[in-house]
Amino acid sequence: MTLFLSTYVNKIDKKGRISVPASFRQALAQQPFQGIVVFRSYKFPAIEGMGIERMQRLSASVDELDLFSDMQDDLTATIFADSQLLPFDGEGRVILPEPLLVHAGIQTEAAFVGRGATFQIWNPQAFEEQQKSARLRVQDKQATVKLRSALSGEGA
């Protein structure tokens, strides 16, 4: 199972390239497409990112919705029509498309934020504020997680 952890802030060079964190590239090393899949988050001013295998699973999940339903149409337009395949160059960098940078308010540096099976790319200052808010919501709600049994988990 691909797992993205931690937060890394990397600079965008003059040619628009940014290094994908080494641990993220390592998590994707066994996938058939050597790069990342990204699209605009519909919830946050951020870029959603994942490997091609996760995107294929997402596609299969959307395919289970009623064909031509409003929900299926909206999700395919929001996710797949907006997605970009970004291959790694020889140094593990990608070029983030301008519309995605504008959506996330990213200019000179970006935060790669691990979210388990997926990751996000944020303006570092915007993510810092979002993370503070998320921590407060978790504390206020006293949120907990029920740990899945190792026998029932995927890739256990």
TrEMBL record:
The keyword Repeat applies. It holds the Pfam family MraZ. Residues 7-52, 83-126 form the SpoVT-AbrB domain. CDD domains: MraZ_C, MraZ_N. Its main location: cytoplasm. InterPro entries: MraZ, MraZ_C, MraZ_dom, MraZ_N, MraZ_sf, SpoVT-AbrB_dom, SpoVT-AbrB_sf. Signal peptide: none annotated. Keywords: Cytoplasm, DNA-binding, Repeat, Transcription, Transcription regulation. It is found in: Cytoplasm, Nucleoid. The keyword Transcription regulation applies. It comes from the Bacteria. Belongs to the MraZ family. Forms oligomers. This is Transcriptional regulator MraZ. It comes from Candidatus Bealeia paramacronuclearis. The gene is mraZ.
